[in-house]
Amino acid sequence: MVETLLNTVPGTRDILPGEIWRWQRVEECARQIFTQYGFMEIRTPIMESTELFARGIGGDTDIVGKEMYTFEDRSGKSITLRPEATASVVRAYIQNALYRGAGLAKLYYVGPMFRHEKKQKGRWRQFYQIGAEALGSDHPAIEAEVIEMLLSMISSLQIETKLLVNSVGCVKCRARYIQLLRGSLAGMLQHLCDDCRRRAETNSLRVFDCKVESCQPHIQKLPAITDHLCVECANHFASFKGYLAAAGIGYQVVPRLVRGLDYYVRTAFEIVSGELGAQNALAGGGRYDGLSEVLGGPPVKGFGFALGLDRLVMLLPDAVAMEAKYKPEIFLAYIGDQAFRQTLSFARALRRQGRSCYFDFDGGSLKSQMRMANKLNASYVLIIGEEELAKGLFKLKRLEDSAQWDVTMEGLPSFLAESAALANPSASMKAGK
Ligand SMILES: [Zn+2]
Ligand SMILES: [Zn+2]
User: Distance between CA atoms of 72 and 79, rounded to whole angstroms?
Assistant: First the structure.
């Protein structure tokens, strides 16, 4: 397609009314469940100073190195559209002194992130994440609770997943492990891809990110970090796994699950979907006790995750998504000008009573209005014609089973309330006052 001003910028798209309810279904589910766990929403700006991400994510990462949307604003300040939200949330926590509040700060966010990634199916440059951060404690039970919350949300959307966990140790034991890893890598360089060879030198943990087939058998032979944790980290990991087990959560320990950033410590996890394949994590997170200090703040313990909303929405079963789809309760079908004016006033009255109703301003034949009512999946159609107006008695049709009643406008609300309980209505009944 030719790029014009009538096209979205590459890597971005409109989310249209026909699919928005899939997103809303997921977002409402997250809000409801996260609130049950005591998490409060935080909305940070979409743009932040570039320095926040350069420091918070790390200059040698792909995100900061090649993917950020960075620009100078009119005052010459370097601004970046957020590529993720953890650094922003921690910045907000420090800036607003949220640590002065009682206990833990439990925060969640929903919103767009921006990364200029290579064009790839299913990858967007404006993509959406839901995430949560628990700031102020390093208790392993919090880690299990956050994971339980996330899994409970995903499973209530009827999406099947697997939990992968690992411990990446602490600054102390990881340094020893990396030395060991380097030694092992040095002995197998000739079998590894170019990227791995480079990583073996610069950031050896990132060898585990390699997706090249021929590297895999060799990577599997590398020492596992979980076998080289210090006593404190080993205890923490054991305790964390104990809390997961107590919550009835199954998991798999995956030693390759490491993160290249120094401030990530101890627990790391990923949630993968069977349908997306093991390489495609739906959500990932972990402990990042050093992040606040990297940003120049006080020491803050943190644990959180980010979940890719675009992928989750894709995996959402239609039946679950349907629950949030817009459908009017009552479709008002009218015939004639006088009936149209009456329809306006009926619609207003019904909406004031908290009922959702819909009518077509262009009217048209009764047949075409019925077609629209069916398309919108309305529960009922109320037919308003000249004759009905004269009598003050209107035909109410339930689309599901074509059951029909004659109702007065005054009797309609109580009728609707009762008819919900009627399993087998007779073909016609009067519902007067
Ligand atoms: Zn350690
Ligand atoms: Zn490789």
Answer: 6
Two structure tokens written together for 223: 């020492």
Q: How far is the CA of 4 from the centre of ligand 1 (A)?
A: 54
309 alpha carbon to ligand 2 midpoint, in Å? 29
Per-residue confidence at 200, pLDDT binned at 50, 70, 90? Answer: confident
Cα(94)–Cα(52) distance, integer angstroms: 13
Ligand nearest to the CA of 228: 1
- Per-residue pLDDT tens digits for 181-191: 999 999 898 89
Pairing of strands 281-287, 252-253: unpaired
Angle at 53 between CA 272 and CA 226, to 5 degrees: 45
Closest-approaching ligand to the CA atom of 218: 2
Q: What is the pTM of this model?
A: 0.88
Which residues, 6+ apart, have CB-to-CB distance to 370 below 8 Å?
Answer: 333, 381
- Do strands 161-167 and 105-114 pair parallel, antiparallel, or not at all (unpaired)? unpaired
CA distance 17 to 409: 31
CA of 197 to the centre of ligand 2 (A): 7
Q: What average pLDDT does this structure show over 148-167? A: 95
- How far, in Å, CA of 135 to CA of 142, rounded? 10
Residue 172 CA to ligand 1 center (angstroms) comes to 5
Kindly state the tokens that stand for 10.
């590459």
Q: What letter would DSSP give residue 341?
A: H
